[in-house]
Amino acid sequence: MVSQVRSLEIESWTLYPIGLLLIAARIASRCLLLGSWKKLQIDDWIMVFVAITFTGVTVSVNQVSQNLSNYLPPGTAEKFTPEEKDNAIYGSKFVMILEEFMLANTWLCKACLLILYHQMT
Question: How many other CB atoms are there within 10 angstroms of residue 118's CB atom?
Fold first, then answer.
């Protein structure tokens, strides 16, 4: 049976190239439509930043799953060895990084949708 950490790793690194492929297809389509990459609009450039934050989300979620974090049941941290405590501190720092990447990714996608809705009306 595959462990939960390994399962998340497989799932996230499988989803990652699919997401990047979709973003690349969008950019390529817009380049063909507009005639040049120099004519790309603001929502196209925002999608480039979405690819960057999506990379950060994928890396961070795997780091959090491989290391311990601050999401532990009460009384668990008292039984840690010094190495496990260091891993928990490292994982907790990555939780913060992960949350920031997720927020940036979500709001960048929302910005693209708002621009799309503005162009439609």
Answer: 9
CA distance 6 to 77: 23
Task: Tell me the mean pLDDT in the region 17-23.
Answer: 97
Residue 104's H or E segment, with its range, is: helix 82-120
> What pLDDT is stored for residue 21 in this prediction?
97
What's the token pair of residue 52? 């960057």
Quick: pLDDT tens for 21-44: 999 999 999 999 999 989 999 999
- Identify which of 66, 41, 36, 57 has the alpha carbon closest to the alpha carbon of residue 106: 57
Q: How far apart are CA 66 and CA 3, in angstroms?
A: 11
How far from 67 is each of 60, 94, 117, CA to CA, in Å?
11, 9, 41
Question: Which distant-in-sequence residues (6+ apart) come within 8 Å of 70 by Cβ?
Answer: 88, 91, 92, 95
User: What pLDDT shows up at residue 61?
Assistant: 93
CB 105 within 8 A of CB 57: yes
